[in-house]
Structures are given as C-alpha cells and as structure tokens.
Amino acid sequence: MKLNNFVLIALIIPFLGFSQRYRYTNTLFPSSTITQNVIYGTAPSVDGLGTVESSTTPQNLVMDIYRPTGDTFTNRPVIIFAHPGGFFSGSKNVDDMMAFCDYFARKGYVTATIDYRLGFNVTSNIAMHSTRAVYRGLQDGRTAIRYFRANAATYGIDPNKVYFVGSSAGAFIALHSIYLDQISEKPAETGVIQYSNITPPFSHTAPDLGGLDIGTNLTFNGKPDAVISLWGAIQNTNLITSNNNTPVFLVHGEADTTVPFNTGSPFGYSSLPTTDGSNPIKNKLNSLNFINNETYFVAGVGHEFYGVSNGTWSNGTGGNSYWPIVLDKSTSFLWKQHKPTANYTSTINGLTVNFTDTSTGATAWFWDFGDGTTSNLQSPTHTFATTGNYTVSLYVENLNKSWDEINRSISLTTMGLADNSNSLFKLYPNPSQKNVTVSLSNTSSEINYQIFDCSGKIVGENLFQNCKEFTIDISDFAIGLNFIKLNYDGKNAIGKLIKN
Q1: Spatial separation of the C-alpha atoms in residues 190 and 176, rounded to whole Å
Q2: pLDDT by residue for the chain (500 residues), tens digit each?
Q3: How many CB atoms lie within 10 A of CB 488?
Q4: Which residues of 276-289 are buried (b: 16+ CB within 10 A; e: fewer)?
Q5: 136: left (phi over 0), alpha (psi -120 to 50) or beta
Q6: Phi, psi of 5 (to 5 degrees)
Q7: How far apart are CA 156 and CA 145, in angstroms?
Q8: Which end of the chain is more exposed for a tag (fewer CB within 10 A), N or C?
Q9: Contact between residue 186 and residue 121 where contact means Cβ atoms under 8 Å apart
Q10: Please, are residues 105 and 67 in contact by the beta-carbon 8 Å criterion?
Q11: What is Dmax (Cα atoms) for the chain?
Q12: What is the CB neighbour count within 10 angstroms for residue 392?
C-alpha cells in the first residue's frame, strides 16, 4: 500500500501546476467574491450641479472588487471597469459593469467596477465644463490604476498587468488615459479659467484641476497596460503619437448618434466639444503602423448596442445577441496581452524524437506525445513504440498562469532501413514481447550479433557457432525500436527489432 501511495503521489505532483489549465479564457471558478465600497482615493467634487467649479467637497472614490471564489493564486492581471452616463449619471452598480466583473473574475482575473466624479453645468459654458468633467474622470481612472499597483500584494495581482475597460463616458476615460498622457497635452480649460454663468451666481474663477495624477500613490504609474473602449471617443486624434502604442480594442456601432463613430459632438449637440470616435482613432493607429490593436465595428447599430441603456439591461435580464460576441472578443484580446507563445522543434532518430522547446515567455511545460504518455520537461526526448503519425501537443504557462498551446503532427517511418524480410536474415515474431528468432539462409560457422537501442547504446550481444538459427530473449529490453547487427561469413547485415 505504501508503494502504491508513493507512485500515486509521484504521478500527481508534476501536474498540480496545470490544475487550472486555460485560465483567463475558460470559466474555471463557480462564482466571484465581492468586496464592496473599497476607497481607492479622495478628490474634490464640484458641489451641486457643478455650476460653481470653485465650490468643492472632498469625495471618497470607491470601487467594488471581484475575485475568483476560492482562488489562491497571487499573480493575476486586474481589469478596471468604468460605467457610462455622460459624466452626469451612472454608477459602479450598473448591470453591464457588474456582469463584466463577474464574468472575468470567474475566468481567473481580479476585476473592479469604479465610481468616479460626476456632474457639470449643462446650462452655460458647456464646452468648458464638460472638458473639465472628462479630465476629472481621467484623473480618477488613473487613481484607480495606481491604487491597484500600490496594493498588488493585497489583492494578489500582477502590478504590470492592469487593464482598463470603459463604456461610453467610461471609454472617454479609458482612451484619454493612454492618449492624453503628457501634462503638455492638458486642455487649457482644465487650468485656471474665468467664466460666467447665465444664472446667479454669475462670475467665477475655475481653479486649476492639477496634473494627470492627483491624490495618493503618486509614485506609481497611472497609465493602463491595455484598454477596451466600448463606444468611446477622444478630444482629437492629434493626441495619438508614436509613443502611444498601448494595446487597444475599439468596439463601436457605426450608426451611433450618442458618441460619434467618426467625428462630431456627443449627442449631436453642437455646444459640446467635437470629438474623434473609434473610426478616426483606428485610422490614426494604422497610420502609425501600430499592430496591437483590434476593432469590432458593426454597421447599422447605435450606442451600447449589446443590449443596455446607460448600462442597464434593456430587457431587464441580460444582453442581446451582441453581448456574447463582445465578451468573446474582449476575452481573446485581453488574454493576448499576457499569454506566452508556445513553439517547439523536433529531431527524429528512428522512433526516438528529441523535442526542443522554442516557446517565448514560458515557465512551465506540459507535453502530450499522442501515444498516451506525457512529460513536464522543457525539452524532452521520447521514444515511441511503433512507427506511425502522432499529434504532439505542447501546453505552456507563464508566471501569470496564462497559457498557450501548439499541436503538430509528426510522422515516424522506417528511416530508410530495408524490411527484414528482404535482408540477409529474418526475424520472427517481430514485433515480439519476449523471444525473437534469427534465421539465416545457410548454416554459418560463427555468428556475432549486437543489438542497439535508438540512442546507439548496445543493449545485447552474443556469439553463436555452427548454426543457421538462434533465439534471443528480449524481455528485458525497453519497449520500442531497436536495431540488430549481424556479422557472419564476412558479411554485415542490419535489421529492425521491435519490442512491444
């Protein structure tokens, strides 16, 4: 019993690291565990309806954090989600943001849905007030990113894998966080500016909103490592320079009248600043030859086309037919940002194949040789029992437990050796489990034989005299292909001997 237990443990241990294969693409966890109202920063919020920019109250910025229930891994990417609402309404608790968080947490990510500062004057100086509202949202998004980098150990995340996903207004935050990334690009409207309201009180001085990063954790980078923009836009594509190659996935309905797919004012309201939507953003990225960006543009559909209105399910229960498409494409895009790349070469020598791992970014390996055997070595050597075609699979993981897999077919042939039936001697039965008989056409006074395995090692040899036929016991040989060499009557002959 002790021996059996030892064998069982020895078999299990190499595979423990692969108990959650296909993490981040497959749903591995039955649920997510939510920590609500985590304060990720504090910032001045404009009082009332935002008519007086200088009248502010400190506001705690809060988020809900979702983690895979029961997961003990501590180097996971994190995804931050920012809700829609035109910088005037909405919250972290809208349907689609919570659904996104739960969906990706059950695949192994840590996720969060954030509240950010809302409100601006919609009665006068709309362009100025709306620009300041977007900038405050940008600051809050960067604060959330810095919070996770600073608290990576607390939440079991990789601080270098912080992604940001925004819907509508949240997508303005996401896109500006990667394209408005220099203080020199800061809009003039966000500095000290004099303005007048059409209603009392009239004349005011709007204070400088500060730099891109305000509040705490200022030693950490506030720029995300990848972005998904759901029907978003930016101030203009001049913000995108050759240094702005952060991976981005743009999702947009081509008939969107809320946030323009091309160039125009949000809601078609000319008092709001003109923005560049997903199509000109895509064109600018292409002109810069950026390759790590993807699009999903749908003709004939409008804003929030996967079945929500301001983040709330339109049918009350879930998204429409576009919802799983967006989920699948988002899953694939984010996985590509942290996956290794599986690859290998192979050298065939008889039935023995030397596999050389050429993967990039891998720290663990699992080989399936297609004959019922496996290996966890990085570059194994494997001997197959018989010739034939085999599909060899290499599954690799990296330090994030992200994965990749490659499958290739290899063909094992006789390697140019003549069949034994056509050689100077015969072997039977061949293949065999125990005894093989060697038969010559004539009696020989002296016969020397040697048996080699596929590596060239001699595994058997002997001398027979005055015989035409003799038997060799191969029961102790390794299963697979061997080669037998005979020397008799001044002749040399080689044949294949297979142990099954």
Answers
A1: 14
A2: 343 443 333 333 344 445 579 999 999 999 999 999 999 999 999 987 777 898 899 999 999 999 999 999 999 999 999 999 999 999 999 999 999 999 999 999 999 999 999 998 888 889 999 999 999 999 999 999 999 999 999 999 999 999 999 999 999 999 999 999 999 999 999 999 999 888 777 888 999 999 999 999 999 999 999 999 999 999 999 999 999 999 999 999 999 999 999 999 999 999 899 999 999 999 999 999 999 999 999 999 999 999 999 999 999 999 999 999 999 999 999 999 999 999 999 998 888 999 999 999 999 999 999 999 999 999 999 999 888 889 999 999 999 999 999 999 988 875 434 444 445 788 888 888 889 998 888 888 898 988 887 666 788 889 888 888 899 998 888 888 888 888 888 887 878 888 88
A3: 20
A4: bbbbbbbebbeeee
A5: alpha
A6: -65, -40
A7: 15
A8: N
A9: no
A10: yes
A11: 123
A12: 20
Q: Which two tokens stand for residue 191?
A: 């500095």
* Stated pTM of the model: 0.82
One-letter amino acid for residue 368 of the chain: D
Instruction: Find out whether 35 and 44 touch, Cβ atoms under 8 Å.
Output: no
Q: Which two tokens stand for residue 445?
A: 């006074």
DSSP 418: P
Position of tokens 């081509």? 254
